[in-house]
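task queued by scheduler; priority normal; single chain, no ligands, no partner chains; default sampling; output format set to structure tokens
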Amino acid sequence: MKLNVQHVTVDIHGKRILTDISLVATPGQCVGIIGPNGSGKSTLLRSIYRALPPTTGDIVLDEQQVWQMSAHQSALYTAVVIQETPSDMAFTVQEVVTLGRLPHLGRFGQSTSHDHHIIGDAMDRVDVRHLSQRLYHTLSGGEKQRVLVARALAQHPQLLILDEPTNHLDIQHQLELLTLIRTLGITTLTTLHDLNLAAQYCDTLYLVYQGTIVAAGPPSAVLSVTNIRQYFQVDVDIHPHPHTGRPQLFFSPHSEHIS
């Protein structure tokens, strides 16, 4: 499924947060949105998954205007994993993952053996099946994150939106999760703070700064010394990764503030 964001502007309480944002994610592509804190990355995602209407501009999924879809129709296409999720849900892990099947259930909301297979497979993919009877609110931050990804996978989306999906995950599960996302063949839009993970796993990067896109393209073009210095205010050395050839960033721990 193709996502096309066209000249989107977002105002919140009279304050402009995003200005003239345009981006494209082609079918099966993993697109990363990067930028310093407060640049507008999460706001952009919220507009795309119908949590915050844009002030101007269009958001289109395969020729369909996202904001003209019903909530049910949108849920059939798009799954979302966000950072701010209630942590006191009195559900088991299996019940949380099962919620991902709701858009696909029939009139009477009865799940089938096919649904149960999808739910089990989603839990297996992110290594949480052994937690299936645990209460969600008793889990660690990393375990909760993996459960929410399993719920999104159970939804069988054509567009997967992830807001900092590697938060709270140890390095093993960070790599496993991003590798899994790369193998799904689903159009994916994700924000990432870790620029090295963005470099290794994203096909295209959009760099957002103060509500506008200031650079876009393959990681090798966007993650330049100039961009890192200007927009992240740190010194960096960049070398090809010995196995992938993609850019690998080495930040200076003794950088002075760059004006």
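post-processing summary
- Residues 64 and 254 are 49 Å apart (CA to CA).
- DSSP finds nine helices and twelve strands in the chain.
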